[in-house]
Amino acid sequence: MFNLKGKVAIVTGAARGIGQSIAIELARNGANVVVSDIISGNVTVNKIKALKKKSFFVNTDVSDKKQVENLIGQTIKKFKKIDIFVNNAGIFITGSTKKLKEETWNKTIDVNLKGQFLCSQAALKYMKKGCSIINISSVAGISGYPQAVAYCASKGGSRLLTKSLAAEYGPLGIRVNSIHPGIIETEMTKGLLTDKKIKQGMLTRIPLKRTGEPIDITGPAVFLASDASSYITGEEIIVDGG
Ligand code: NAD
């Protein structure tokens, strides 16, 4: 357990998957959590309330500056501060580079990279010494993968967005780190993982011999959110089974 008592967190894309798990674990460790997504986040909100922590949902498309400002505004109105921001919302569209539509490139960069920038920029206006931003990147932000040029570029961008913000805001005592999940079983990877041959091929390359679950990402996220990591910034944690 980490001590997040009295802290206020915002998690984007928290209606399901990794974001939902992180939001719940932040609450279990003591934080009040604002849940945001483009789909209903009420299930997550109710799970957090069951832990006796405060929570509410704000419908937010992270690629839209006005909606992001509304998310921050509503959080400040209700909780008066932001201690932790988790940039988790993301999309994953695969396909050959030759056939990749310009709209798909734009959409991927807008949500996965511009979204993290807009949210960080808006949240940082209210962040002070001791605050923490956590960006969910991917192993695809470190190594290149075929048929995923926009996704890899967006996640590589997230990695360096993290390091740049860490360098700029470190002197103010605000930390910014990234988490790089490998294959995690969520809606995002459902299509990929139902193909037994593809899944088996992936498992041969994972030393821990299993795919990840959203809960596998929560430990590193809660650690980076807490004062237990107070001398860590601009760092990347790879969570991929080895
Ligand atoms: P998911 O699809 O289950 O969850 C993503 C959430 O983001 C959804 O609730 C979705 O509604 C929301 N979202 C999508 N577009 C949005 C937008 N424009 N604004 C706000 N919210 C939006 O997927 P997940 O696996 O839980 O992914 C969470 C994060 O983890 C993503 O950034 C993803 O790229 C990253 N990631 C996932 C894996 C994996 O294997 N699942 C691996 C590496 C990185």
Task: Write up what this structure looks like.
There is one protein chain. This protein is α/β, with parallel strands linked by helices and 242 residues long. The chain is built from eight helices and seven strands. A seven-stranded parallel beta sheet has the order 3-2-1-4-5-6-7, with helices on both faces. β1 (8-12), α1 (17-28) and β2 form a beta-alpha-beta unit. The mean pLDDT is 98. Nicotinamide-adenine-dinucleotide binds at residues 12-13, 15-19, 37-39, 60-63, 88-92, 111, 136, 138, 181, 183-184, 186-189.
Shape: globular
Task: Report the radius of gyration as a whole number of Å.
Answer: 17 Å
Mean pLDDT: 98
Q: Ligands in the structure? A: nicotinamide-adenine-dinucleotide
Number of strands: 7
| Low-confidence sequence ranges | none
State the order of secondary-structure elements, H for helix, E for strand.
EHEHEHEHEHEHHHE
Q: What is the rounded distance between the termini?
A: 24 Å
Strand content: 5-15%
The major β-sheet equals: 7 strands, parallel
Helix content: 40-55%
Number of helices: 8
